Input
Amino acid sequence: MKDNNKRYVIVLTGGGTAGHVWPHFALFEGEKSPLANAFRENKLSVHYIGSQSGMEKDLVLINQPNWTYHSVATGKLRRYFSLKNFSDIFKIIFGFLQAFFLLGKIKASVVFSKGGFVSAPVVWAAWLRGVPIVIHESDATPALATKLTLPFSFLALVAFAETIPKMPPLFQKRVKHVGLPIRESLFSASKNDSLKFFNLESNKKTILIFGGSLGAQSLNNKMFNIIPELNKQFNIIHIVGKGNKSEIMNVNHYRQYEFLNQEMKYAYAAADLAICRAGASSIFELAAARVPMILVPLGLHASRGDQIVNARIFTNQGWAQIIDENTFQNESAIQLIESTMNSLDERKKALDSSPSAQTASKVSELIWDIILRYEANK
Ligand SMILES: CC(=O)N[C@H]1[C@@H](OP(=O)(O)OP(=O)(O)OC[C@H]2O[C@@H](n3ccc(=O)[nH]c3=O)[C@H](O)[C@@H]2O)O[C@H](CO)[C@@H](O)[C@@H]1O
Output
């Protein structure tokens, strides 16, 4: 018999950077989201399993006081030789055991994983507990955490259709292209209020510069070389990343921040153009906010090249332009920025065909359906 007073439990996991955290929040926004409604009606409790020191902890504790946060030990799975790989194996095993006992206590109806190092042991523990697992990959190439958790998942969601053929063939049937869940609240600010928030004037166009959620020092340095020139014509909002603040701060029409939490909505509403890395959440959000973008993807020296592929897909569709970090030149960068500022209408029009912000409610529905089916068959 159906129990109408039953309280279901969702366990969220993922972390390291904000791109592995904010998509969870997106599932709990908006009137069309069944997860948001169930949570509001007290039919669903939300538990987040993250690391002790990753960005996810602060983001959850600050922004979601009604979720329960649990920290577990995490170890990094490096693709290169490092002595830390040996000690980290024990941390991963410990994290797995902690997650296993936690899941036994929490009695989860579903686990939703957004990837990052913390997520793999949680997914493995959930599988052993028989809890259905949904994973989501944001990037155009699957991350290691996704490859390690896909065999244990019930459903694997991807932001880019191009990711599906890159998944192991044995498991491709369980992969579904949905897009990237982004927060509705990111689009709730007006341009005027946002310019006021930054104390910037509306008679100048505004450039938003940021390097993902952690900031990107090498992108910052390149930008510092051209900011004095750009600042003659444009307002600039520059998010430099934690610990990266520089001497030049808040002069003329330049505003510098380490990180914007909920205030990121003002940055998107104020911006006429963004210059940024090509992390998946950043570019999907900018597209949904209809902000033309110039992408400087993180290169192969520091990543598996996921941002290069993300950026190429967006550029091929006409949704973005790319500057290669290795061949970056001040003069040509300034020229590209100026010419883009002179053709904003065209660039914005191109973004009309870009992915919409509807993914969050779709993913929320998929997960809610899994919760109901799992609980009905228990
Ligand atoms: C260096 C690195 O490993 N980068 C990866 C990481 O980046 P990261 O998670 O930083 O990058 P994403 O672009 O995916 O997400 C950034 C998120 O941070 C938010 N934001 C940004 C600045 C700020 O001040 N406040 C704020 O809230 C943005 O709105 C966005 O939601 O995960 C992404 C998703 O798998 C990958 O594509 C990136 O390659």
Observations:
- The first strand starts at residue 8 and ends at 13.
